[in-house]
DNA sequence: TTGTATGCGTTATCAC
DNA sequence: GTGATAACGCATACAA
């Protein structure tokens, strides 16, 4: 046991083999080794093979720190999201990872915990790390965006997704939230619901504003009045959704449908309160969520929701960056904004006819 | 618009400010700037303040590539998991991130997609990136572990979690799967179930072997026979769980309880098939899953399961590394293996009495 | 095709 | 306390 510890200690401080070690062993110049290792075509095939062979023997691993420092790039993409372990974000990250991996890029991941203060620190860390590209979805309380401007000023490609700062001219990948919202509420109206409540999220985030716009547009389209008492601010967690529902259902004229535009968690809160109050879903109350979380399929009744194609969104983000890179010397200008059309998934919780 | 493009182009190639720029502006040596920036106590307070001030003015960001190259460390932890967007893993990662962030460490994340071939590539990439520590949970088809030995040989601290290679002497953070399994099956037996089936996972992964051991131990403890026909191999997805359930429930003597030791998804498959076949849960069939996925609380009936404290597990992993670092010169030896005791969460799907 | 020399941006080791 | 200088490991311009 003791020996093992000593052994690891030794290994830990062991110098790794470098191109100089290989060069020395082969009696050639380090530059030749470097060329062979980077598969340059200015090397003799024979020496290339020899280098590769001894590199393997000596268990050589390139030091990317040095390589990247020299090349002035890091082949690394930084990602900042509110929480890594939220379905939507972990899916987007999985998508980014998949696309990046194919191109030989690595991901450095940070979570802002929905706090602008931490978001700023994360962004600065990633700038320090010399990431080539920084991908971010803003924290809920993110108000000013100096730290993002800072990213651009440091020559780092900035890509925003989902929760974006509209006024910043960067590459963006977003959902067409307004359209999705419009479709969802239209569907609800077509199912014969008359008084449709809206649970809205923090309006400083564009996405929630857009979803509200879609809601209003749908009401307008069908000549239905906008009733302020049916619009509840900041109901974007399960608990807040539940609380809002209790309030709504106790109104003199309660709603007959609730669109939890913020999230499926909020919709779940709605469902649980409704069932607890003995209100039948969907016959007496229609419910629609947002995000297509896995559980919406499992609840009874299952919950109508909107799928955001999150993994695809991640791939799109990464590929947007690579496309931009390919294009950086060309004259063609990549589209600044890619909008992904979400899909309404109609389930039992809003099916009143048919 | 054109101007904007040109502007970004310019910014992209702009040289960042370095310590030399600050030194030049202040007419002092770069080394002094470095000292001031790293808050050394061998610098005059006045110059330190001056340096910090102009650094802020010039929007200086330290180049960690250079810094880390020089210091021979990267302040970076590499993480390899089968899938980033699986609840358990994303929670562990969130935990690692939280603890690492506090210590000023960054995370580089890769997913193996349950493929040893990709796992090997990920590991090599992380070695190249000079991560200080590599955290891994093995891919399902991971059989030999040369690539992990390679990590150790390169002087990188290796920590395995959850799905570990038992024979490799590394730091490990695991769940006490056997104990948890034993408790779960004991609970099922105490509820009066007599024929308890087991859905097991790939036995080349230790964790599934341990869960089976716990199952067998519980049967032994209560003097119940082990019935081979009730043990189904490789039923670790929702679909495979469903398939296994159809087979089991069509036996001449079907089970009256199913322990989906592999995952809650598998348990969900069991539940859906049972309900579709008109079998009452829990009165006619008891069901227990594994992992405490969010949805287990929501199904009807809710599913009994085992909580693995995944976020806590992540924090433990990170802190184990930091503790090991603090200790590396000391004589004290950190525990090689940390075992976290999972918690049985009894829900409706196994409540037959009381 | 190969070798020499230099620099990427820091930090550490010397002197002073 | 400060400055000059070397070194971390690699990639490339240039010379041979």
Structure write-up:
- The structure is a homodimer of 354-residue chains.
- With 354 residues, the first copy, chain A, is of the alpha/beta class.
- Chain A has a domain of 139 residues: Rossmann fold (3-Layer(aba) Sandwich).
- Helices cover 45% and strands 14% of the residues of chain A.
- Chain A is built from 13 helices and twelve strands.
- A six-stranded parallel beta sheet of chain A has the order 2-1-3-4-5-11, sandwiched between helices.
- In chain A, strand 1, helix 6 and strand 2 form a beta-alpha-beta unit.
- Chain A starts with a helix and ends in a 9-residue tail after the last strand.
- In chain A, 46% of the residues are buried.
- The N terminus of chain A is likely disordered.
- Chains A and B meet through helix 1, helix 5, helix 6, strand 2 and helix 7 of A and helix 1, helix 5, helix 6, strand 2 and helix 7 of B.
- Chain A binds a DNA duplex (16 and 16 nucleotides) through helix 3 and helix 5.
Compact summary:
Chain A is an alpha/beta fold and 354 residues long. Helix content of chain A is 45%, strand content 14%. The first copy, chain A, has a 6-stranded parallel sheet with strand order 2-1-3-4-5-11, sandwiched between helices. In chain A, strands 7-6-8-9 form a 4-stranded parallel sheet.
Determine the mean pLDDT of chain A. Answer: 91
Unreliable parts of chain A = 1-12
> Remind me, CATH topology of the domain at 177-308 and 344-350 in chain A?
Rossmann fold
Q: What is the C-level CATH assignment of the domain at 177-308 and 344-350 in chain A? A: Alpha Beta
């Amino acid at each position: 046991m003791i020996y093992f510890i000593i052994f690891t200690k030794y290994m830990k401080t062991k110098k790794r083999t470098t191109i100089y070690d290989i060069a020395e062993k082969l009696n050639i110049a380090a530059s030749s080794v470097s060329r062979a290792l980077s598969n340059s075509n200015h090397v003799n095939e024979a020496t290339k093979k020899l280098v590769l062979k001894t590199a393997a023997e000596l268990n050589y691993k390139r030091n990317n720190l040095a390589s990247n420092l020299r090349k002035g790039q890091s082949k690394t993409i930084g990602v900042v999201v509110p929480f890594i372990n939220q379905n939507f974000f972990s899916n987007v990250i999985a998508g980014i990872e998949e696309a990046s991996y194919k191109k030989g890029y690595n991901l450095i991941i940070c979570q802002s915990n929905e706090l602008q203060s931490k978001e700023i620190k994360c962004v600065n860390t990633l700038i320090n790390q010399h990431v080539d590209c920084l991908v971010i979805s803003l924290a809920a309380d993110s108000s000013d965006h100096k730290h993002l401007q800072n990213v651009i000023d440091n020559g780092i490609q900035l890509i925003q997704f989902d929760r974006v700062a509209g006024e910043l001219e960067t590459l963006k990948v977003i959902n067409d939230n307004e359209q999705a919202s419009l479709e969802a509420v239209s569907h609800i109206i077509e199912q014969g619901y008359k008084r449709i409540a809206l649970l809205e999220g923090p309006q400083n985030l564009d996405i929630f504003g857009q979803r509200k716009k879609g809601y209003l547009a749908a009401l307008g389209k069908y000549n239905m009045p906008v009733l302020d008492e049916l619009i509840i601010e900041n109901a974007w967690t399960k608990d807040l959704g539940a609380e809002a529902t209790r309030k709504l259902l106790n109104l003199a004229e309660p709603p007959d449908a609730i669109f939890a535009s913020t999230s499926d968690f909020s919709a779940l809160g709605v469902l649980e309160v409704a069932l607890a109050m003995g209100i039948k879903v969907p016959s007496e109350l229609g419910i629609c969520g947002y995000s297509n979380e896995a559980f919406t399929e499992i609840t009874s009744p299952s919950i109508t929701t909107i799928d955001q194609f999150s993994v695809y969104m991640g791939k799109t983000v990464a590929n947007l960056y690579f496309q931009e890179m390919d294009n950086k010397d060309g004259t063609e200008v990549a589209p600044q904004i890619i909008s992904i059309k979400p899909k309404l998934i109609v389930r039992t919780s809003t099916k009143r006819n048919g």
